[in-house]
Design goal:
Layout: E1 2-5, H1 7-15, H2 20-28, E2 33-37, H3 38-46, H4 48-55, H5 59-71, E3 74-76, H6 83-93, H7 101-109, E4 113-115, H8 119-127, E5 133-134, H9 136-145
Parallel strand pairs: 1-2, 1-4, 2-3, 4-5
Helix pairs in contact: 2-9, 6-7
């Protein structure tokens, strides 16, 4: 299964690299492929000082964990995203959170699933019939089923 990781999940991993969420990624990599959108890199870079502070790690340890996390994923560029995928994602997310368009578009493009910690996005997309979305509870169930 192709799984697109939302920025909030990545940030959780950076804040707590020994946490359950990061562990899920490491365990599921055997049978699934993880992706992020390049927009996530911008968000991480924009919030790096806050993430570093919240992680309580040294700068070097934080950078090592960040590099390790990024090695677990494939980065998809929005620049090469088909307009049809972006339009479909916009129609799905415009009234929920327009900033999530790129993540939903990436999941559509990859015929995969979006893993998010954003409860309004999760509920809103499901209510619209978009079921290729996962939260951490769904990820835990997926791991238990393997």
């Amino acid at each position: 299964m192709n799984i697109v990781i939302d920025t909030n999940i990545l940030m959780s991993c950076l804040i707590k690299p020994d946490g359950v969420v990061f562990n899920f990624i490491c365990l599921l990599r055997r049978n699934h492929t993880f992706y992020i959108n390049d927009y996530s890199l911008s968000e991480i870079n924009n919030h790096e000082k806050k993430l570093l502070k919240a992680s309580h790690l040294t700068f070097d340890d934080f950078q090592i964990n960040k590099a390790f996390l990024l090695k677990q994923v494939t980065i998809i560029s929005t620049e090469f995203m088909p307009d049809a995928n972006l339009k479909e994602a916009y129609l799905l997310t415009a009234d929920i959170d327009k900033y999530d368009v790129v993540f939903v578009a990436t999941a559509i493009f990859l015929n995969g699933y979006l893993w998010t910690g954003d409860k309004p996005l999760y509920a809103g997309l499901k209510a619209k019939g978009f079921y290729n979305i996962l939260n951490s509870t769904d990820i835990k169930r997926l791991l238990e089923d393997e």
